[in-house]
Amino acid sequence: MATATSTTLAPISDSRKLRNHVATFAMYACFVIAMIPLVWIIWTLVAKGAGLLGDPHWWTNSQRGITSRIQGGGAYHAIIGTLLMALVTALIAVPLGVGTAIYLVEYGRGRIARAVSFMVDVLTGVPSIVAALFIYALWIGTFGLHRVGFAVSLALVLLMIPVIVRSTEEMLRLVPRDLREAAFALGVPRWKTIMSIVLPTAFSGIVTGIMLGLARVMGETAPLLILGPYAKAINTNLFSGNMAALPTMINQDRVEALKPAVDRVWSAALTLILLVMVLSLLGRLVSRLGSVKTSR
Amino acid sequence: MAKRIDTSGLDVFYGDFKAVEDVSLTVEPRSVTAFIGPSGCGKSTLLRTFNRMHEVVPGGRVAGKVLLDDEDLYAEGVDPVAVRRTVGMVFQRPNPFPTMSIYDNVASGLRLNGVKGRTLLDETVEQSLRRANLWEEVKDRLNKAGSGLSGGQQQRLCIARAIAVEPQVLLMDEPCSALDPISTLAIEDLIFELKNRYTIVIVTHNMQQAARVSDRTAFFTIAGAGKPGRLIEIGDTAEMFSRPSERATEDYITGRFG
Amino acid sequence: MRGAGLAVVLLVALVGIFLTWKAVPSLLHNKAPFLTSRVWSPDTNPPRFGIAALLWTTVISSIVAMLLAVPVAVGVALFITQYAPKRLATPVAYVVDLLAAVPSIIFGLWGIAVLGPVLAAPNSGLRQGIENSLGWIPLFSSTGVSAGNVFLASIVLAIMILPIVTALSREVFLQVPRANIEAAQALGATKWETIRMAVLPFGRPGVISASMLGLGRALGETIAVTIILSTPNIGAPFDPSLWAGGETFASKIANAAGEFDTPQKTGAYISAGLVLFVVTFAVNAVARVVISRRKEV
Questions:
Q1: What percent of chain B is modeled with pLDDT above 70?
Q2: How many CA atoms lie within 13 A of A56 on its CB side?
């Protein structure tokens, strides 16, 4: 073959080749760099925190009566607190978020819809500490109420709404037009069409939004600092008394130097990340399954 | 400058799917060869093997040979990038770089090859635009975005961009299908002029266009869905349109199918 | 439905209104210039507080974080969209998204307990390299490294915003028209040249707004920064170096969270929160405008 020596198909210059190789290497390097923290963090948490998770007491007991020198104890009080606050948050945020998404997709035209959409974006960017301060100004500063779990939930609602709106919206937009039009053609009123056809089709998107939203709010710490003081004992009343949550359980002891307390910090962190990752993995799984169904 | 293309026993695949089977043909230098045939017959696919653009689709590969004069484009050690520098291409839809000016669009290929001198760039840009019959229309706005031109102008800009690097062969994949009749005429005139310098292969759906611009015509067809496209015949355009030697060609040209 | 939509608008408006309402009385009593003073004693009578130091640390830590994160994020987005084989691209994107799911308190914990010691070690090559080469700029000079320094906070913030910037950049790179890419390839561009000619110019506005969104997130990040940054002693001279500790708006508020006892004192912190709200609002709004303009084109 004459190719290697020919002039027409002469290989490109070495410097171009080199630049291309360097760029390729850089892209792979970026990917590796991005993976390092995730692996490192998970490794740290498992190495330092897995110990206590094997003990059934971790899942059933609180920290009541346990001091920094005592080994073990449980995280039940914090887990239940985190779940309760997240549940109440979802109960408020889901109807608002789904409603907003339906409005934007099914009814939203013109100025108001643009304003709503813009505000949802703004809400995405509101720092959690600002949301917490707002609820503080309202709940405590204005109504003179106490720092309780419900106030935390209210602040979390602000953070959860945009997640739900966006993920619901995405799914609603995938509902085929002709499905809607078929229903309209049959003389079904608009709200009935939405209830009976659009919502069930977009169901997986809504579920994904809820799960991703829950994952986000469960990991939030700032609203807890401002509005939800930590307690070592179990409290399931959102309207009275201090209530534990996993982030505040971590925060409480993070400056401790004694090993039993340090161990608990890492175990609580591992518990929290497990909770959050399971939720967000499930959420994405549901969205994957749902979108496969609609795309066919 | 212009070179000949020879294929022998060329099969083209997308993954396991054979899109084109056993094509052996010759494209003569300094002439226009048109590829015609019904949709899905593989004429565009075949065209894209001439500059190895076929490979950018995942799973795209060929078996057989494509020779540019005596060099095998698919020989081991041949860089597809080098092939594409030598064999230029114009696409179905005009695709100037949207963020570049008219000047930078034409100069982009030269800059890739390390041409830096301002005078040389200026000269080549002007010459290429002139050869693409676009100079008079754009000479006062060379620094404006290429995307501001009309569709026909954009296509001529893309032709100028392709010929600025002095390719051996110019491939045109239905270059007029997105254009209005007047712009089409302008491109056809241009093709007629360009064939004095370049080997041109044009894929077209439009048989009148093939008859107008090409010296030789290759007719492809497909036996059925899922079957590979095949070359039925290739020959002198005037002859093929008046006395096709194959029944299938005649049916297609006279509009009985396709 | 429309009610729900309007409720969202109302909610954002209420955030601004309430914060302003609660901040104004304290601001009126404030005897220090709010924007330019570095003093923070909101419980004296009269109160004196200013945000200059907070603003500096907030902005500098976030900008350094953005500068660290954006190149890597763009690289990862290009890797996913242009380099990785199809079968690998989806799981990789998925794993990067998982990073976004890590709660910020865990980033903080890991940052101070694991990454910090690596960076602050007296023989840390990275730090000494930076100090030796850039030490003449006050930002990089050190009079002693604080364990919880701003640079450490920036690295952790960079990791936290990486998935956001990656996800949005990935989205715009996927939208690059095939025709643009093929135009470059057909001219004989290498892969990298194709990216420079067709992919990056098309994606630039998207990458810019993605960076802004990441910046917005970094500006408002609370607990990770609170855990990492060591609070300067009261009365200590202000140190602008990246190797010093400091306080951001969010960490200042979080550190005082348990002590909101008088309306006047609370008002001072709410004023700081209001500034943070305005700044993040502005950054996000600009980012969104850039994105939506892109969509209309």
A1: 98
A2: 0
C25 at A interface, C-beta within 8 A: no
Residues A98-156 have pLDDT tens digits of: 999 989 988 877 888 888 988 898 888 899 999 999 999 999 988 989 999 999 999 99
Is C187 an 8 Å CB contact of chain B?
yes
**Chain A residues closer than 8 Å to B79 by CB:** 9, 11-12
Say which of A27, A218, A250 has its CB closest to residue C78. Answer: A27
For residue B23, the distance in angstroms to the closest alpha carbon of chain A comes to: 21
Please give the interface size between A and C, counted as residue pairs whose CB atoms are below 8 Å apart. Answer: 253
| C252-263 pLDDT tens trace | 999 998 888 888
Model confidence, pTM = 0.90
Question: What does the pLDDT read at residue A290?
Answer: 65
pLDDT of res. A296: 35
Phi, psi of A62 (to 5 degrees): -100, -170
Residue of A133, A190, A270 to mutate, interface with C, max C Cβ within 10 Å = A133
Cα B45 to Cα B65: distance, rounded to the nearest angstrom: 15
Touching partners of C (3+ C-beta pairs < 8 Å): A, B
Measured between alpha carbons, how far is A257 from A244 in angstroms, rounded to an integer? Answer: 21
Query: How far A152 CA sits from the closest chain C CA (Å)?
Result: 13
pLDDT score of A106:
82
Q: Which residue of B has its CA nearest to C182?
A: B53
**C8 and A113: CB-CB below 8 Å?**
no
Residues of chain A contacting C284 with CB distance shorter than 8 Å: 121-122, 124-125
| 3-state SS, one letter per residue, for chain A | CCHHHCCCCCCCCHHHHHHHHHHHHHHHHHHHHHHHHHHHHHHHHHHHHHHHHCCHHHHHCCCCCCCCCCCCCCCHHHHHHHHHHHHHHHHHHHHHHHHHHHHHHHHCCHHHHHHHHHHHHHHHHCCHHHHHHHHHHHHHHHCCCCCCHHHHHHHHHHHHHHHHHHHHHHHHHHCCHHHHHHHHHCCCCHHHHHHHHHHHHCHHHHHHHHHHHHHHHHCCCHHHHHHCCCCCCCCCCCCCCCCCCHHHHHHHHCCCCCHHHHHHHHHHHHHHHHHHHHHHHHHHHHHHHHHHHHHC
Q: What integer pLDDT is reported at residue B95 of this predicted model?
A: 94
C 217-276 near B (Cβ less than 8 A): none
- Let me know: does A64 contact A221? Beta carbons within 8 Å: no
Question: Under CATH, to which class is A76-295 assigned?
Answer: mainly alpha
Overall average pLDDT of the B181-194 stretch: 92
Which residues does chain B have within 8 Å of residue A2's beta carbon, measured at their own beta carbons? 70-71
Residue B135 — pLDDT band, cuts 50, 70, 90?
A: very high
User: Which pLDDT score is estimated for C88?
Assistant: 87
Collapsing DSSP to helix, strand or coil, B56 comes out as: helix
State yes or no: pLDDT of A3 exceeds 50: no
Domains by residue range for chain C, with CATH: 56-296 (1.10.3720.10)
Domain boundaries, chain A: 12-53, 76-295
Chain B residue closest to A6 (CA)? Answer: B71
Q: Is residue A170's pLDDT more than 80? A: yes
* pLDDT above 70: percentage of residues in chain C: 95
**C30, C49 contact by CB (below 8 A):** yes
Average pLDDT of span C218-228: 95
Contact C183 B98 (CB under 8 A): no
What domains lie within chain B, and their CATH numbers? 5-94+169-253 (3.40.50.300)
When pLDDT is averaged across residues C22-38 and rounded to a whole number, the result is 90
User: Average per-residue pLDDT in chain A?
Assistant: 87
> What is the Cα–Cα distance from C274 to C253, expressed in whole angstroms?
11
Could you tell me which chain B residue has the CA closest to the CA of A13?
Answer: B113
The mean per-residue pLDDT over the stretch B230-240 comes to 93
